[in-house]
Amino acid sequence: MNLNFSEEELAFQQEVRQFLAENLPPHIVEGTANNSSVFVEKDIALEWQAILVKKGWAVPQWPTEHGGTDWTPAQKYIFSRECYHAGAPMLIPLGLLMLAPVIMAFGTEEQKQEYLPKILSGEHYWCQGYSEPGAGSDLASLKLKAARDGEHYIVNGSKIWTTHAHLADHIFCLVRTNSEGKPQAGISFLLIDMNTPGVTVEPIITMAGDHEVNQVFFDDVRVPVSNRIGEENQGWRYAKYLLEFERGGGFSAHRIHHEISNLKRLMKEARQDNPAFDKDGIVARRLARIEIDLKALEITELRLLSSLNDGGNPGPESSILKVTTVRLEQAVNELMVDVLGYTGFEMNPIEGGNPVRDDYTSSIVPRYLNNRAASIFGGSQEIQRNIIAKMVLGL
Ligand SMILES: Cc1cc2nc3c(=O)[nH]c(=O)nc-3n(C[C@H](O)[C@H](O)[C@H](O)COP(=O)(O)OP(=O)(O)OC[C@H]3O[C@@H](n4cnc5c(N)ncnc54)[C@H](O)[C@@H]3O)c2cc1C
């Protein structure tokens, strides 16, 4: 297998580098570096999205007819890698990379015309209404009820852990339209405007101190039947399709590489502060283990994601990417916190309670805490392993 880039690909790499050098504003790079949450600030993400839309590079994964690029998998890989190296933020995937593929695959022509341009421009900011109190891993037991009333559904119940619901103007929801038979057979997929009367959002503050997730309540919310994606009671199929994109629709290895370069900078500083740092080589060995596994992840991503080039979906193999990405990201976060030691406290109690180091360093412990949730959201690590065992290994 030839893993070297061709002349054309190297020229493309130069073109991307030049574009980033000329168009990626420093305040966006800074906001991305100091971010400790799963997504960067909405304003930063949308500003960068608008710059990419203008260039025609916001959604390389989309077909060209809807505003995507005609890039090869190698070009998509190069673009993604260069963006991370330059410190650009990840665009918020909820609308762009999770809902949009479902609309493209199962939506009507009217729904494609109505929603895709607004997702691309950032006019619509979406959140994901899958989980409920009592329905997380066992998602099919969800209860949010949508009762038919002529050309509307009347929606009652609640969704929980809804990331960015307090910032979103739209939510895509799994709702129960039939309570008889197999639970999977009575689910539908609805698009709901958050400004509809009866929708309320309550914050949930995480242990990292962030307001990122919420509980969303629906109280007699009237939703047009035309907002349903696909057929009534067939929503489980569309929901699973979306999850494949949530779990493995991008190149995560770059993100980890980028974080490892920050880790190496911290290690260098630690060595300057204390020449005895890592004398026994334990930190270096942990880092080497991560880097070896990261190489394997990178190759697996290239292999699996090349299938997306033909408009395919990632398939259940996306669970392999999710399990490995989360494991490695958390290992890097943990090593960073260990390298920082007591200087990782935002207010260092030993040095008189003054803030320690720079904004980036202060974001490391919150990022470590925030990223513990990665083993839960998008389906827990245990659930991913169940999927790999059943759907990939056929056990
Ligand atoms: C920060 C964060 C953001 C989130 N964002 C969203 C969002 O935007 N939209 C949304 O819809 N949801 C969101 N979620 C919810 C997330 O998808 C669920 O938390 C997740 O699916 C787990 O469900 P649960 O919390 O009900 O845990 P449970 O399902 O109760 O699981 C508890 C534990 O039991 C284990 N377990 C359960 N069943 C099995 C099994 N069959 N085999 C082995 N182990 C099992 C799980 O792995 C877990 O460790 C978010 C969650 C978090 C933490």
Query: Based on CA inertia axes, which overall geometry fits?
Result: globular
| CATH level 4 superfamily of the largest domain | Butyryl-CoA Dehydrogenase, subunit A, domain 3
Q: What's the story with the biggest beta sheet?
A: 4 strands, mixed
User: In CATH, what is the class of the largest domain?
Assistant: Mainly Alpha
Number of helices: 13
Mean of pLDDT: 91
Strand order of the largest sheet: 1-4-5-8
- How much of the sequence is in beta strands? 5-15%
**CATH architectural label of the largest domain:** Up-down Bundle
Give the total of beta strands. Answer: 8
Q: Which structural category fits the helices and strands?
A: alpha+beta
pLDDT < 50 runs, ≥5 residues = none
Run of helices and strands:
HHHHHHEEEEEEEEHHHHHHH
Number of domains: 3
Bound molecules: flavin-adenine dinucleotide
Could you give the distance between the termini? 30 Å
- Briefly note the CATH topology name of the largest domain: Butyryl-CoA Dehydrogenase, subunit A, domain 3
Share of helical residues: 40-55%
Radius of gyration, CA atoms, in whole angstroms: 22 Å
